[in-house]
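REQUEST FORM: STRUCTURE PREDICTION
Request ID: SP-0412
Submitted by: Lab K.M.
Chain count: 1
Length (residues): 229
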Amino acid sequence: MPEPEAAVLTGSAQPVVEASSSRKPNAPWWIKFFVAFHLFAITIYALPLPPEGVRSGKLQPFGTDWILYLNWKFAKPFPLVQSYTFSTGFWQYWDMFGPDPVFKDQYCTSQVIYQNGKVADYQYPRMALLSIPDKFLLERYRKFYERAHDLDESEQSGLKGYVRQRFAQRIALLNDKYPGNPPVEVKLYFHEWEVPKPGGNLTPKYTSFKYFDYIVDQDQLAYDKAGVR
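STATUS: Completed
RESULT:
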């Protein structure tokens, strides 16, 4: 029986390279537009505010303050930018570093009144009294309180009023500890100290006052306590 013919290699063996497409990946135009708009919007909100004197009109913008002034005056209030950043949660402020750093220490306490007349005090998480691990875990509580309970805006109506009702209802839930004796009223107290400039007296002197009185929704309390939410 004849042997099969052997394959004969001629010349040096070269790897076969398939022809590749010369086209480069290209994103649709709307993705490019969205990325550009997103970067534009978050940059606007990352820039700090101009100095207080410029915002009040007492001083004219000077140097780089012009950039901050024009951004604050025209870019941040732009409806499309505001709608996008606030609805998606991408708004942010870096002005804690300048030009007007935060100089107020604020915290909240409450009185919880029970059905039998008993009164208990409750303090919302306060950074100055927490351990370092707890400060890391509960920092958002401080930020939430600072934003949701801004006393410079509407007191009882609209979103502020709704948030405070839910806030007080949550405190009632946390303090519903006695069977047959539920919380019936929650009073919220605001405490604030304006930290002095360097060289000033650093002994805290807080201004305190009640800013919200809430009658507990018993049906909601039972609903929340059941763990449905």
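NOTES: The mean pLDDT is 83.
Reviewed by: T.R.
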